[in-house]
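Revision sheet: structure tokens.
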Amino acid sequence: MPLLTCRLPCLGSTYLLKMGKSPVFSLAISWGFVITIERMKKITSDAEWAAIYPLFGFLLGRVFIGGHTRRQAIFDSDVEAMYVFYRLGELNAAAHHQPGNIERLIEGTISNEEYSRIKLTPVTALSLAEIMRRPRETVRRKLKKLVELGLAQDTEIDGRRGYIITRAAIERFYHENRTVYNDLVYMVETLRRYQDARQSRETADRANAQKD
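Predicted:
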């Protein structure tokens, strides 16, 4: 399974949000979502946004509320532990998540098998606390909880000691991201149906206007 899915998270995809700013979604999800969005008509006025917002807000809420409910179960309703996990996963695989990799993903030259073999870089609790700008003891406590939940482990790789996310966690978010992807596809397909219906109405209105 692809390690990229760990960055989902936070809504995670990291790349979808990082194209805005932060992980939560995998590159594969992000690319498919962006490609479909580009086929839709871009909103250019406040009136257009006001017209589509009730539908968009409903759909977006469906995606995020559903995802939040599932992740509450994964992290035992501990939001802070969830953010520690997301940042840990991002740092563990930082060397493998360079922007240039998106081209390889688009071309299909990076496989699931290749990502399943990615070597993670351990991160110490102190480094993680400094990066997150959180108290060290708070981060240590959350890392301990993640270890208890089977989502992280304290280990040594190539002489470097620290925490990494577990393969079990990667597997879990691989399946979680599949649900998120399907939710996003439903959302975009529904928005496209709205755009098609709106275009049909506008065409009919123009035709009626010409008759008059």
